[in-house]
């Protein structure tokens, strides 16, 4: 006999037509499910085993390892149960861990875990890697939870017996994922458990909601930034479900609702269940990881520019050698920082230091091209440049070059050239860079160094 106040509540939620359908399902038998333990079995093993037929196993649509079974076969009594090959679990209760989607290597908390359906499902998905803290507040139930964890052969789970508030003080912002299968008014279990009907009242719904709100706040405080919270109940009323989620969203602007899902016994093969998946904002890279990533990016950029310089230098100034030191990038500008065995300036030492000249400026890297700096021309000797990239000017051309003018050259001359002034028959000294193409040398003397025409 369902309580009148419960029927009134469901009428309000479903309307008359659906209510009739909903109430009719109370005359039908409940569903039975088991979930194979992926730590010991795989689905191929199940499909090829005699169990498939003997127990009339039928796949549960929302859980790969879950099957409906024929109750008369009593798999709970079979030695395979003692061997931990499967866990007897109400089919709709399998939805929450599926939605939470635990991953190997993560740090996960199951906050209200006994007798262990969701914990054993989570642990199977973690495949022995990472840590699952499986908590149950009541000691006698924590013992059953511990036995079930043991039976399933789980190696990476710590069972605790604590109030959520106690865990919250110890594990702030710790978990990648939290399962909160909250104690609730159990309306979805009425077909399975007559005791739940007797304990139900509108007041008990209020009390459950108040208790849930307390546990939720502790759970959220233990979620990492970007962490996932699966909140589930086996009840129908909105107060403990959708309204609880709205309350979370109102109080915690960071929390985002990712998905909500209900299993209705009159629409699907399973008892009543509700689950919501929430995320605690976007994941934050921890500082060390983000610093490492920045460093990696900087190193990659530096090596691209450095490679461009060395390839360019090999062709244009093949005999020029840099002193002991290391290349350093300031934006697009490549410098060569001199070092000794006693002094090798670090980025930290240089940080925010005014540096009018950070060693020798080698050049710039723009549009995938290396452009040599004037400072490099002044540091190179003519004999260090390739003959094909050196132009010693006559006296009148020197004046034109220093004025910043384009100079007519042999059209065999191409690319970057050291532009030099002759000193003696054998000696010449660089004035700057020019770039030759089709009989013209484009002047690359910096504008600030160009001499005014008389
Ligand atoms: N997740 C379990 C599973 O899949 O097997 C079922 C959990 S059951 C729905 C809710 C659990 O919450 C019960 O084991 C109950 O003892 C526990 N509980 C009751 N009051 C609690 C409280 N104030 N804080 C945390 N857990 C509580």
From TrEMBL:
Domain of life the protein comes from: Bacteria
InterPro entries: Methyltr_RsmF_N, MeTrfase_RsmB-F_NOP2_cat, MeTrfase_RsmB-F_NOP2_dom, Nol1_Nop2_Fmu_2, RCMT, RsmF_methylt_CI, SAM-dependent_MTases_sf
Keyword terms: Cytoplasm, Methyltransferase, RNA-binding, S-adenosyl-L-methionine, Transferase
Any one GO biological process: methylation
A molecular function (GO) term: methyltransferase activity
Domain named SAM-dependent MTase RsmB/NOP-type: residues: 22-295
Annotated residues for binding of S-adenosyl-L-methionine: 112-118, 136, 181
Enzyme active site: 234 (nucleophile)
Similarity remark: Belongs to the class I-like SAM-binding methyltransferase superfamily. RsmB/NOP family.
Protein name, as recorded: NOL1/NOP2/sun family putative RNA methylase
Organism, as annotated: Paenibacillus turicensis
